[in-house]
Structure formats: structure tokens, C-alpha cells
Amino acid sequence: MNTLFSLVVPVILCCVAVFALHKKIDVFDALTFGALDGLKVIVKILPALVALLTGVYMLRASGALDALSLLCKPFFSIIGIPPETASLIFIRPISGSGALAVGSEIIRQYGPDSLIGRTAAVMLGSTETTFYIIAVYFGAVGIKKTRYAIPAALCADFTGFFVASLAVRLIFQA
Question: Is the pLDDT of residue 162 over 90?
């Protein structure tokens, strides 16, 4: 079975090459043209990504993330989200790697089989890095006004956090 899966990529590449030969397409020219387009996209989105990553590091280093987490912990307790996951909730829409670091800290501190550790793990898999995605995709196509995309995405993220917490409670505390 492993041998079959290891052949998938070479078979796809061969099919593309045969198709290109049949259609008389210069594959190397198409490849270099695609690479050039990719570099143009990188140049367009790089400033937004640098600003986003700088903001994340400043937020964590300044202690603002911890202060915001402390401020919102009572609200999270009321709606059933473990307050210990507050820092994860605030960093996840901004940075995937930052959220992974925060999630790892939570799991290390409370344990992978704890309600808090499981909730953090499910939250990491149930939500998206909203601002990163908006910076990359909207920046790639040159959209400057996101209109309702950010509020809608943040509502979806919060719904994901809430449902992740609810699902972990229902499944593991039954």
C-alpha cells in the first residue's frame, strides 16, 4: 500500500508532462512564468506579513496579551470557555505559530489529558489565523478594503472557540 502512495506524485507529474506534450505547451516557459508570478505575489504581501508578525511579537513582549487575557477571564468563565485558554483565543486569529506556542504552554502546564489541555488542542484545530489569511489573500489580489470580511471571520473564530470548548466538555465529561 505504501508503494502505491509513493507513486502518486510521479504519476501526476508524468500525466502533466504527457498532456503538455500533447497540447504542445512549453512546460519550462510555463514554469518560469508561474514562478515569476509567485515572486510578484510575495513582494506584494511581504510588507503586510512583516507588520503582522512584528505586531504579534510586540503584543506578547509588552504584556498586553496577558492583561487582555486577565480582563476577559470572567466573561469566558460565564460562557463556559476555560479562562486559561484566553491567551490562545486572542493570539490564534493573528498568528498560527504564536498560537501553537501558547497552546503548547497550556498543554505543558495543565497536561494533555486535562479539560483545559484538550480544549486548547481542539481550539487550535477549529479556528483559523484570520488576520494572516486576510493579509495574504487580500494582499495577493490587491484588495485594500476588507468590508465585512474581518468581523465575519472573527465571529466565526469565536464560534469555533465556543463550540470547541462545548464539544470537549460534552465528549470528555460525559
Answer: yes
Contact of 152 with 106, CB cutoff 8 Å = no
pLDDT band at 1 (very low <50, low <70, confident <90, very high): low
Give 73-116 as a DSSP string: HHHHHHHT--GGGHHHHHHTTT-HHHHHHHHHHHHHHH-TTSHH
Burial 73-89 (b: 16+ CB within 10 A, else e): beebeeeebbbbbbbbb
Between CA 12 and CA 17 the distance in angstroms is: 9
C-alpha–C-alpha distance, residues 33 and 150, integer Å:
33
Rounded to a whole number of angstroms, the CA Rg of the chain reads 22
Q: How confident is the model over 43-68, as a mean pLDDT?
A: 82
- Separation between Cα atoms, residue 16 and residue 22, nearest integer Å: 10
Q: 0.85 exceeded by the pTM?
A: no
Contact indicator for 126, 46 with CB cutoff of 8 Å? no
DSSP secondary structure string for all residues of 152-163: HHHHHHHHHHHH
What pLDDT sits at residue 94?
86
